[in-house]
Design brief:
heterotrimer, A alpha+beta (238), B mainly alpha (215), C mainly alpha (194), A: alpha+beta, two-stranded parallel ribbon, C: 194 residues, 0% strand, globular
């Protein structure tokens, strides 16, 4: 090997070590910046999410003043503090600290994409007490009526979801019927011109209640009453 | 070195204004089209996206300009992308902290600022060659130009498509919104119309200049 | 059709929520490289290839990120790994298949900064697709991109023979065409509904 190629090789080694050094430096700087940003924003984001969940729960459970989070895992209901595996179930408590209902998420394929919603269920009246659409990309002016049309929303003030005597399924499944054809308390009156979106809401509710209610309703004793003196949301703070 | 310093043009109003008007990233350069079309269905989304992009432009521009002598040429693009991705991650978390609703409305397009070709283009062609103050001023100009363009689309689409401006109704109850304007096709149509208007203005200007010269 | 079946995921990305015309991903090449039919097709093929690769990469990186609980590094990790994976593909293609490299090679570096690629990786993560679902999704997205860019290129080739007014030539015309195509594809949404 002659002199020049040796020096060239040496230079290229120097070069690549310089490159690695610079890349490491830059990766460190960016890692540091990201970690700082994440740490600074973490409490704010958690608070925002808590507020969003709380607002949704209070909307679907009109009597609720406080709430607590539970999980349904392998047919067993337990508090989120024990483990956070399983399906989220939110328990709402009224002004006396008693359980006023439970809320859970449901979803179904809508007109353009999946519709996700939260619904409240009141075990006393065995009915759904409200829904809140969490995510939807339905067509503005048509499909978005599922959360803008007051007549449609009125369907969910007391939508019957009673379990059969064996507590294995709903006595009458929730169905969406053609606009103006609602005759039973477990039927949803569709929006004319947005049948697909209305049906998706019905399907989401039916699927979720048929699965969750037979599993949850018999275990409601797990949900202990809360201290009514506490103010909104404190039941959930650490 | 000192010789070079003297040659470098000073920062003028032009450094800033170039990005806003003459080299407007959207209307003139046609860069970063995805967010321009996707998140301009309302004014507030457009404004938030504009501010987020400006922050990333300024932040990455400043850091790249600061490190411009240490970054080896061979790996510069990779380095730029990592720096840009860092600032985008920061913006992503800040927006989540400010408003979840806004975050959900903008969706994945905040994270997709990383691949906005305008930012990488500016890093390569400007920030890597200029002093930090100058890079920041120019990045601010570009960002402003981008925000203005987004607002041009956002306001038109919101007014026509929903009959509102920043959420407040501006027409009477009888107004039937042109829903198509806030749907995907509306984005193409409104941007196309703006480009047509600018082309028309330019054509008129050159014609007038031609007439003036002929006289 | 169940929303998580492979066929549905594929069709959803292909036409119902077409990546370009409904989700606005990959607009830059859609406007820029749609002048000629054969270039558009090569671009589409190269994009599909990169989508497949990055989808697989993203799937495994995400597993790692979740394992170590460092999801906040997701964006940086995705873009860095996708960029280097594309670079590797480009180099190996150059060495092993020069013919393929001549056809697709020049597009590969461009595609790295195409938002459709990163968008695909992010969407499949948000929707928590498993491995085969991710593959179906990336094939659908790539196919959707090919359909959109080929349609546009076909229209633009025909328009070259038409008498377009001076001010409407170029980008403005392309955007209007894009609007009409997008309007047509809106007709497909609802195919997934009940």
């Amino acid at each position: 090997m002659n002199q020049t190629s040796q020096t060239e090789q040496q230079r290229s080694y120097q070069n690549s070590s310089a490159m690695i050094m610079t890349l490491t430096l830059i990766a460190t700087i960016s890692g540091l910046l990201v970690v700082i940003a994440v740490e600074l924003t973490r409490p704010l984001i958690a608070e925002n999410q808590r507020i969003a969940v709380e607002q949704a729960i209070f909307q679907v459970l009109p009597d609720a003043q406080q709430w607590r989070e539970y999980r349904l895992n392998n047919r067993e209901l337990h508090s989120v503090d024990e483990s956070d595996d399983g399906i989220a179930i939110y328990a709402g408590f009224n002004q006396y600290g008693r359980l006023s209902g439970i809320a859970a998420e449901a979803s179904a394929q809508g007109y353009s994409d999946v519709i996700r919603l939260l619904y409240g269920y009141n075990p006393a009246c065995e009915c759904i007490t409200g829904i809140k659409v969490l995510k939807s990309t339905e067509t503005p002016g048509l499909g978005d009526k599922i959360y803008k049309d007051l007549d449609f929303i009125a369907n969910f003030k007391a939508l019957l979801a009673r379990l059969n005597s064996e507590h294995s399924a709903l006595e009458n499944g929730i169905v969406t019927v053609k606009h103006g054809h609602k005759s039973k308390p477990w039927q949803i009156d569709a929006i004319s011109g947005a049948t697909v979106s209305s049906r998706a809401v019905g399907k989401a509710l039916n699927d979720s209640t048929q699965y969750l209610l037979p599993r949850v309703v018999d275990q409601l004793a797990v949900i202990k009453p809360v201290d009514p003196a506490q103010s909104n949301g404190d039941a959930n703070s650490e | 070195m000192s010789n070079k310093r003297i040659k470098e043009a000073p920062i003028t109003m032009d450094t800033f204004l170039k990005g806003v008007w003459e080299e407007n990233p959207v209307f003139v350069m046609l860069l970063g089209m995805c967010p321009v079309l996707a998140v301009t269905n309302s004014t507030i989304n457009a404004l938030a996206m504009g501010i987020a992009t400006t922050f990333v432009l300024v932040g990455s521009g400043a850091l790249i300009s600061l490190l411009r002598h240490t970054i080896p040429r061979q790996v510069r693009i990779a380095t730029y992308i990592i720096i840009i991705a860092t600032f985008v991650t920061i913006v992503d978390y800040v927006i989540q902290a400010v408003s979840l609703e806004l975050y959900n409305a903008l969706g994945a397009f905040i994270q997709l600022i990383v691949v906005n070709c305008m930012i990488l283009g500016r890093a390569e062609s400007y920030a890597s060659k200029n002093r930090i103050t100058k890079s920041i001023v120019s990045a601010l100009g570009m960002g402003t130009g981008f925000t203005v363009a987004l607002l041009c689309l956002g306001t038109v689409r919101e007014i026509l498509g929903a009959g509102t401006l920043l959420g407040f109704p501006i027409f009477g109850a009888d107004f039937e919104p042109w829903v198509i304007m806030i749907l995907p096709p509306g984005g193409f149509f409104v941007l196309g119309s703006w480009l047509l208007i600018f082309a028309l203005l330019k054509q008129r200007k050159t014609k007038m200049e031609g007439l003036a010269r002929a006289r | 059709m169940p929303a998580d079946s492979l066929t549905f995921i594929f069709l959803n990305a292909l036409i119902i929520n077409n990546f370009v015309l409904a989700s606005f991903l990959g607009i830059c090449p859609f406007l820029g490289v749609s002048g000629k039919l054969n270039t558009a097709f090569s671009m589409g093929l190269a994009t599909t290839l990169v989508m497949l690769i990055s989808s697989v990469c993203a799937y495994f990186i995400n597993m790692l990120l979740v394992e170590f609980d460092i999801e906040f590094l997701r964006l940086i990790a995705y873009i860095a790994v996708i960029a280097s994976a594309v670079q590797l593909v480009e180099m190996s293609m150059k060495k092993f298949s020069p013919a393929l490299f001549r056809a697709l090679g020049i597009f590969l570096p461009l595609i790295t900064t195409n938002c459709a690629i990163l968008g695909l990786a992010l969407f499949q993560t948000y929707r928590e697709y498993n491995f085969s679902q991710s593959l179906a999704y990336s094939l659908g997205a790539g196919g959707g991109f090919i359909i959109a860019i080929m349609l546009m290129a076909g229209l633009r080739e025909k328009l070259e023979l038409a008498d377009v007014p001076g001010i409407a030539q170029g980008a403005a015309m392309t955007l209007m065409l894009g609007g009409i195509l997008s309007l047509i594809f809106m007709g497909f949404s609802g195919m997934g509904g009940a």
